[in-house]
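Bumping my old thread because nobody answered last time. Still need a sequence for this structure:
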């Protein structure tokens, strides 16, 4: 198994209530396009990997900040506003950026708490943009 330190974005712990009006702009459209990359056989060889990101809570099995491809967990986390993560998902994009399954939620509903460095990294994602539909938000 190949592991490496990851450039992680959108792993925040929001403290404010979610926005009543989600932020839909070129940044959220770029992030959604990256999340929609297939896991296998994507156009132009672009695929995302599903795996596990080591956290301080994960104990001695996984090093903090290291992405472990194809390692799946069955625990989910929840945003303080109630949105739950997918039980197994961290995603690594072809350029090495890693995010969790709540990343898009944080970007659209908790934008004011997202670090500017993360927004700058997302702005550089080279996977185009897609329109955000209501079903992507809820």
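Sorry it took so long. Here it is:
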């Amino acid at each position: 198994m190949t592991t490496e330190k990851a450039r992680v974005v959108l792993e925040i712990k929001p403290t404010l209530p979610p926005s009543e009006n989600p932020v839909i702009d070129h940044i959220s459209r770029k992030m959604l396009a990256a999340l929609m990359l297939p896991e296998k056989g994507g156009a132009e060889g672009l695929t995302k990997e599903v795996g596990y990101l080591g956290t301080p809570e994960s104990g001695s099995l996984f090093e903090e900040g290291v992405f472990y491809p194809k390692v799946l967990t069955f625990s989910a986390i929840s945003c303080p506003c109630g949105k739950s993560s997918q039980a197994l998902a961290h995603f690594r994009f072809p350029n090495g950026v890693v995010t969790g399954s709540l990343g898009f939620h944080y970007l659209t509903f908790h934008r004011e708490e997202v670090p500017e460095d993360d927004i700058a990294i997302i702005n550089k994602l080279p996977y185009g943009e897609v329109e955000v539909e209501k079903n992507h938000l809820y």
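The chain has one domain: 4-11+38-126. Let me know if any region looks off to you.
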